[in-house]
Amino acid sequence: MRFTSALKTVAIGFALTASSVAFAQGGGGGGGGAEEMKKAETAAKAEQNAKSLGAQLTPQLPPATIPADPQNIWDLDLSSGGRVRIQLRPDIAPNHVERIKELTRQGFYNGLKFHRVIPGFMAQGGDPKGDGTGGSTLPDLKAEFNPMPHLRGTLSMARAQSEDSANSQFFIVLLPRMQLDKKYTVFGRVIEGMQYVDAIHEGEPPADPTVILQASIESDGKPPVLAPLPPPPAPEPAALPSKKPAAPAKKPAPKKK
Fold this sequence. Notes:
This protein is of the alpha+beta class. Helices cover 27% and strands 16% of the residues. It has 4 helices and 8 strands. It has helices at residues 2-24, 30-57, 94-106, 194-198, and strands at residues 73-78, 83-88, 114-118, 122-125, 154-157, 170-173, 186-192, 212-217. An 8-stranded antiparallel beta sheet has the order 3-4-6-5-7-2-1-8. It is elongated.
């Protein structure tokens, strides 16, 4: 911004200088008027160029939200209670979004657990090994760091120490963590069902991990998969008859004559 302001100052200063020169030379007839006009046009063009350059130097932030598009909505049916709808952002991380879509349509995420869930921080899943060391057979992704912040509900890609090591694991932010910005690739955000994310069982790993029952792209039209109901309690066994034989009924005493 300082650079932009400096350019504007130079342009305005140039315009003022040209105007003063034009006025100083302006009393002498038609030729002086044409030269004055030419210098004024030059000054105006310089100011326009400065504004254009300043606009180019200003970073263009992506929009905070984009219109919901079923082709870019990731549905996660969780054993914690219901469907989580996530707006994917191909406008800021096209390769990461494409990877999620490809693995989802392969059925890769179905049955995987959230293996690392830290209260007040994030819930991480997408590892077929379930211990944070696994991934898909596809090659690792090149980072697509972007200006989007890690807010509550943000979907971001997990990685190892290398910036270009993201593969299949992802995490959903539970509370804002701005220190992760531009260090992990943000590629979506929860737009519905955050209560089911909050209900994911905590732990590293959790004793009873929450499972992705089904992952799907909304445009594919797959109905939600609900968590199986717990089996009804087994009926109590019927009371068995006693093994001791019942005493025979007593015969009535004969009547005396």
